[in-house]
User: Fold these one by one.
Assistant:
Number 1:
Amino acid sequence: MRSFDLPGDKSISHRALILAAVSAGRARIRGVLPSADVASTAGVLTALGVAVPPLDPTEMVISGVGLRGLSAPQIDLDCGNSGTTARLLAGLLAGAGLPARLIGDTSLSARPMRRVAEPLRAMGADVTTSASGGLPMTLGSRALHALTWRSEVPSAQVKSALLLAGLMAGVHVAVDEPVPTRDHTERMLRAAGVDVHLEGTEVVLEPKDRIALDTIEIPGDCSSAAFLLGLALLGGSPALALRGVGVNPGRTGAIEALRRMGASIRCEAERVFGEEPVATLIAEPSVLRGITIGGAEIPALIDELPLLACVAARAEGETRVSGAGELRVKESDRIRAVVENLRAIGAEAEECSDGFVVRGSDRPLHGTVRTHGDHRIAMAFGILGALPGNAITIDDPSCVRVSWPTFWDVLRDAT
Ligand code: S3P
């Protein structure tokens, strides 16, 4: 059996840099993901006066400037392609009362920012988005007050932005989530000494004057692991063991869905790594059948739906996904991109307003995939392309730099 270590978790890497930047004293970060998205967060923090060393997965040390120590930026803050950077830092900046302007690439500029601007305004912040509700987003300097907010869309980015705003402004925040989302921010805040707890469906943060972090251990990225699981399940490689993968329940929906499809995925060596549960995931070639995916399970597998669609193209029968309208406002319109590309390579798929239907087959798949610059589209179809008998060209393979710069090398090693 072949074993692989996964790159550091992207969501947790952003949070580690942000919280280390505003903590008191030095924080050690181990396992950071050296990717373009995380570099965007590092770049913005640098523009706020934090000395951020180069992204080094072995270890990087950040000397935090404290909750009141950030400086007003002299330049536009470039979030690149990263929604997590734009939304989390909007909350941080609003809470710090620092005037700033957040910008991004074409894809990010078109993504919805009102979902974060509106609750920040409800806290008293002076925030404007572009006319279409995207970037550029400008933040003025105003003191914030306490907030109780019910999110319309389940979004860990919005929840995290509001918790960071409350932390920086020193005010009480309660976020009521329609469906629970990944809780990495809450776990890391607790490790930093903040009282963040659940009251029913509300995530509540109590104000605090200072935070301190010692060592942050970042597990392997569960969303990246999903691509290699797909490869092994579809027989593109022998059985694979993926070590040190984060298995936070807010992230493991795809593993549950794959198991429902008949996948053999074992979880071994489970332990707690820093604040997060990790495990070795072992996947073996499996006979898969179509399933229905929807409702409350969507947030825990939202980023894995392109991969699940590609796996479904090789399963017996039909896979139906609904309740996933959020896919239309990710790095690309992932519902359209998945369906158009599956059809372009000879698979059967249909678009729905909030999901898609894929009918599996074992016929050879060939053609060119248009990624629309979306890393997860490139990697999901890269897995299908690595299966014997398929011949698939990806139009922009380099877009994987956003979350997994060495993906194509690892894929070659794994097959
Ligand atoms: C993320 C939350 C999710 C996810 C994204 C990363 C995060 O987005 O899709 O890739 O790090 O908080 P939403 O908050 O928009 O659901």
Number 2:
Amino acid sequence: MARPLFQALPGTRDILAPDSQRMRALVEVFAEEAERAGFGQIVPPMFEDLGVFTRIGESTDIVTKELYDFEDNGGRRIALRPEFTASVCRAYVQSRPVPPWKSWYAGPAFRQERAQKGRYRQFDQVGAEAIGSHDPDLDTELIALAVRFYQRLGLTDVTLLVNTLGDKADRPGYLDALRAYFGQHLDALSEQSRTTLEINPLRVLDSKRPGDAEIIAAAPVLLDYISDEAAAAYRRVIDGLTALSIQFVEAPRLVRGLDYYTRTTFEFASNALEAAQNAVGGGGRYDGLVADLGGPDDPGVGFALGVDRTLLACDAENVFGAVETAADLFVVATTEGTEALALTQQLRSEGWRVERAYDGRSMKAQMKAANKSGAPVALIIGDTEAADGTVSVRPMAGGDQVVVSRSDLIQQLKDMLP
Ligand code: ATP
Ligand code: MG
């Protein structure tokens, strides 16, 4: 076959039925759990002023390398959203809802990354954010929401990693300690990490490069440098998770990819996926982001889960499969008239899933299509039926075909179909 003139760009793909249906079902599960927990849906725009996203952190990969930004016809600097948190905070500053403001979202995000399985340039996220409260119970509730969501999908092999990044004031002392420590091990660090060290030592901890792992494993931990208040908030989260019987692993060197995190940070890793793409979700507190966007000094906490990777994890664990839904009825017509058209619409308006054949195909071809549709019942309109105002009802699994008048048809079908 000749190569098509156009193909979906690298890192993008068409999600077709039944996979698209499965994705919708996943979002539906998330929506249900989020709304039970008191989160309302926000649908923010997919693009924003570039400045909204550069606040995420000048030294993060998302901003330096991955952002899709461009100038529009009005000369505005625009970026496609690489994540939702900054947009949600921008919306909070713009409309000033009563805090704590709890919102959930679902939709695509865009990052210019090296495309591979589980890493796309357009991918979907679901997530939730709570803005305007310092209460660590919110952190725990958010984690519990994500855990509940994974449980409902049937995922069992997901590890929750938890850490605290302390407050901004705790940072300088810790950064000094990191600089001193990594400074002693410069030779062993990868070249990229040496560069990162100069920009933001904290981000060296996020290096996934194999050679760096050993050095990172012995690096100072933030917990030893944080204020009593931040430490108490962290304890409260740990105690909350324990009280809820949520299993977790304390990961004292977990920093995550964004600069804006403070206090609680967490990540969900699927053990069923390859290490490079095993992060199925993550989040934490971002107590300075709202202020950075020109708003009040209000705190926030939230998480985002990768829909595509979560579905890959479901595949790997063999849970939450795509459901191929069969038709309820299949209309077969060998007349020239509009009977098939009208009957099909009538049956659909009764709430059944109804398919039919097109292009005036032969009876045999139509019956074949009826078989393929999975419909348990075929409805046949030939010239006789059209003239008599009847329909032949044929159970596809075998059994007698009966002729039914149009006026009795709906009741007859209600009796036949489950
Ligand atoms: P990674 O370390 O794998 O690059 P990340 O830290 O950049 O992930 P976040 O910014 O925390 O990811 O986004 C939340 C979730 O969104 C991730 O846990 C992941 O499941 C998903 N995600 C992030 N980037 C991509 C991508 N390019 N393609 C598919 N899913 C992604
Ligand atoms: Mg990333």
